[in-house]
Design a protein that fits this description.
The chain is of the alpha+beta class. 21% of the residues lie in helices and 39% in strands. The chain is built from two helices and ten strands. The protein has a ten-stranded antiparallel beta sheet. A hairpin with a 5-residue loop joins strand 9 and strand 10. The protein is globular.
Amino acid sequence: MKTILLSILFLFSFLQTDAQTQNNFPKEFITNLAEHCGKAYAGKITSFPIPSDFANKELIMFVSSCDNRKVKISFFVGDDLSRTWIYTLKGDRIELKHDHRKPNGQPDEVTMYGGTSTNTGNANVQYFPADQETALTIPAAAANIWWVTIDNNIYTYNLQRVGSKNSFTVEFDITKPIQTSKRAW
């Protein structure tokens, strides 16, 4: 009986520790992003077909703003400086929003769409299905799923629309910072 009780207590402590570790994944993910604060990296589209508005354009991510709850990453496509990915820690989940701006800095007509992770993911991967606000604002994006990966070498931003054969992936080598004077609008 004592052996069974000790086994149950050991198993319970293992499961509790595992659950606590999982709850730290969103914080670890934000920390992994924030480690690149102030740095820029060159990117490339690794999915096909390449959207025409991205073809033959310089792609740069610039980790422009960081704290322990929020990271902003500007995504430059050639001379288009309108895009910023905003990752915000909300409890044990992360919200991803896409902030789009006009050249004068005013919000674009379509902006602040995205989603919140539905589980804690892990320290290197987070998934963001479209939220209700996105579904109402951009009905065609209601079935979007974004996911982001980061490890010691690569950061990827990915998009898949459920039911579509095409996906979108842009990959950045985060071992090779570059210099850029570009800043988001």
